[in-house]
Each structure stands twice: as C-alpha cells, then as structure tokens.
Write a structure and sequence with these properties.
The structure is a single chain. With 170 residues, the protein is an alpha+beta fold. Helix content is 34%, strand content 28%. It has a domain at 5-122: 3-Layer(aba) Sandwich (Aminopeptidase), CATH 3.40.630. It has a seven-stranded mixed beta sheet with strand order 1-2-3-4-5-7-6, with helices on both faces. A hairpin with a 4-residue loop joins strand 3 and strand 4 (87-95).
Length: 170
C-alpha cells in the first residue's frame, strides 16, 4: 500500500466516518436532484436522508466500515455487510473528489474484498445507479459483472457481482 494511504475499520458514527458519509450522501443526492429537477437537494431533505441511513448494518458482527486516509486525512470509505453465509454486499464506496486519481479506490476495493473474505464470503455484490458512471467503471475494472436484481428500492438501477477467489490462488 502506498505510504500516503492507510485503510482501517472504524465505527460508522466516528467523526471521520460521519463526515465522509455526509460528503458521500450529498454528492450522490445532489447528482440525482440536478439530473431529475435541475437543482441540488433541498437542505432539509438532505439532512433527513443523511440521518435516515445510520449505517448500523455496517457494524459488527455482520458488517464493517473501512475508512481510507490519505496523509492521515479522512479520504474515503467502503462498507461490507454479510448478506448470508457466502455473500457480502459492498456499500458506501466513496473517495473525496479532490483525492480521486491517487490510487485510493483500488486500495479500498482490495480492503473490502479482504473484509468480505474474512466474513467467509465467496461472492461480493452491490447495487448502484446508472448515473454513477465513475463508480460503475471502477466496479467493472475490478472484475464485477452485471447480475440480476437482488433487492429493490427507489435508487437501485443496476446490480453487480463478483466471485471472490482465494487470495492465495489469485
């Protein structure tokens, strides 16, 4: 791992994790609202959305939130939660825009895959929106392929999955 980057589990309600969740949610919410309505998210609605997803599903024993730091500064997150004995779900993959392009996304994805394997997963799945092109590009680059929907909701538009190989075999 680059010496500038460090990645470690952190409570979802830590100051760093909370600030990164706010940045993530604001970015994806504003992107959706700008596309659909031509305006950013209403501040009250933004606060309700941030508060509504506590991240409790990323707490032990069946979840983990990984926080990436760049030069010690909180820079991004990736969450992993167990869905069943062999499948984990990837959540909250995010890097601050000013720190993108410095290798952090690959390191976060590697750490997330290790976390999924530690839960006993042989498969990692995720859902996302079609307009999150950068994220979708990252997932495909990392070996994820489109799969049938495994959940539903107002913002899930495309689903991806990846078989996890044993690290010792590649």
């Amino acid at each position: 791992m680059s010496t500038a980057w460090s990645i470690a589990p952190e409570p979802v309600d830590s100051a760093a994790a909370s600030a990164l969740w706010r940045a993530y949610y604001t970015e994806v919410s504003d992107r959706w609202y700008l596309k659909e309505t031509g305006r950013p998210t209403d501040p009250g609605e933004l606060e309700r959305g941030i508060a509504a997803d506590t991240g409790d599903n990323l707490r032990e024993p069946d979840g983990v939130l990984l926080v990436a730091r760049y030069g010690g500064e909180p820079a991004g997150t990736a969450g992993v939660r167990r869905l069943d004995a062999t499948t984990c779900e990837l959540k909250r993959v995010f890097l601050l825009p000013r720190l993108r392009g410095r290798g952090g996304s690959g390191l976060l994805m590697d750490a997330a895959e290790r976390a999924a394997r530690a839960f006993g997963a042989r498969r990692l799945v995720l859902d996302t929106r079609l307009d999150l092109i950068e994220a979708r590009t990252l997932y495909v680059k990392r070996g994820f392929a489109e799969i049938p929907a495994y959940n539903s909701g107002p913002y899930q538009e495309i689903w991806y999955g990846k078989e996890l190989t044993d690290v010792s075999t590649g």
